[in-house]
Amino acid sequence: MLHDRVLVRADGAEGERRSSGGILIPATAQVSHRLAWAQVVAVGQNVRTVEAGDRVLYDPDERAEVEVRGVEYVLLRERDIHAVAAERLGDTDGATGLYL
Questions:
Q1: How far is CA 71 from the centre of its chain?
Q2: Alpha-carbon gap, residue 7 to 3, rounded angstroms
Q3: What burial class does residue 98 get, using C-beta atoms within 10 Å of its C-beta: 0-12 exposed, 13-18 middle, 19+ buried?
Q4: Which of 42, 51, 82, 88 has a CB 3.0–4.6 Å from the CB of 7, allowing a cystine?
Q5: Helix H or strand E encompassing 84
Q6: Closest residue by Cα to residue 47 from 99, 1, 83, 97
Q7: How far apart are CA 70 and CA 48, in angstroms?
Q8: How far apart are the first and last CA of the chain?
């Protein structure tokens, strides 16, 4: 990876999903604006806030998709990441493990 780029693998398919009450929501349902979680696979040399293995929250509308060896990934700029969830961030008292 080069510069400020982050390569991530999306957590779930963008198809059907279930609500917390168990209701099936079809892929064609209109949702206002929804962010998505992904697992960081690789980072460029200028990335300072995330590391490989972290989970990040990003806007699916602002992404570039790439396929490497049959696996689909999303290519982001570091500034397009809205939050980071990582075990290494959870050692502070009362912290959620997320930062914006």
A1: 16
A2: 12
A3: middle
A4: 42
A5: strand 81-85
A6: 1
A7: 29
A8: 23
| Cβ contact 61:18 at 8 Å | no
Pick 74 or 99 by higher pLDDT.
74
Strand partners, 37: 57
Q: Mind listing the pLDDT tens digit for each residue in 23-38?
A: 776 666 655 667 888 9
Residues 7-22 have pLDDT tens digits of 999 876 555 666 678 7
How far apart CA 97 and CA 54 sit, in angstroms, is 11
Tell me if 53 sits within 8 A of 86, measured CB to CB: yes
Helix, strand and coil percent figures for the chain, each rounded to 5? 5, 40, 55
H helix intervals, 1-100: none
